[in-house]
Amino acid sequence: MPNLAKPFSLGLFLCLSLWPFFSAADPYSAIIRQAGLIETGSDLQVQARIDYRLSPTAKEALHKGVPLTWVVDINIRKTGRIWDSTLYSREQRYQMQYHALLNQYEVVTPDDEGEMFLSLNAAMNFMANLHDDIRLAADSFQPGQHYYLAIKCRFDREALPVPLRPFAYLDTQWYLSSDWTLWPIQK
């Protein structure tokens, strides 16, 4: 009779050692609550609400002066038979940093303008409301075609200081990104 204890223990060891890479960190990830397009005259504007949830590790790093950066990917796509085509694509970068001497939080917007806040909640609420003016005419949508708005919020681990990056890739408390969220465009 073959001894199955050795292969079983090796398989158990591999499963347990790879578990952090396959487990989701849902309590600390960003969540896109709502998104849509608003017509403003002849142009369109993307509006979205994103909930940022910081893990205890990310909060500790923020309070020690480490800036945290998120990139919001915005796409407008037209569905096709084989693949979807992209009508509009843009990235918006937001950076949050705590200034200990001022006891304030700074949020740098995609326009490279800094806004100062007295509390972490106020800074996160400011980042949560996304407004993006699109240089796409409202009449560029063809009747009978299906379009959707795709938004993803990803945490930029490459923007962290170099000594912190390996920990950010291995620790699930640094998985602060969202999944792609798709919203149909009603026309």
From TrEMBL:
It holds the Pfam family DUF4390. InterPro entries: DUF4390. Keywords: Signal. Residues 1-24 form the signal peptide. This is DUF4390 domain-containing protein. It comes from Methylomonas methanica (strain DSM 25384 / MC09). The lineage of its organism: Bacteria, Pseudomonadati, Pseudomonadota, Gammaproteobacteria, Methylococcales.
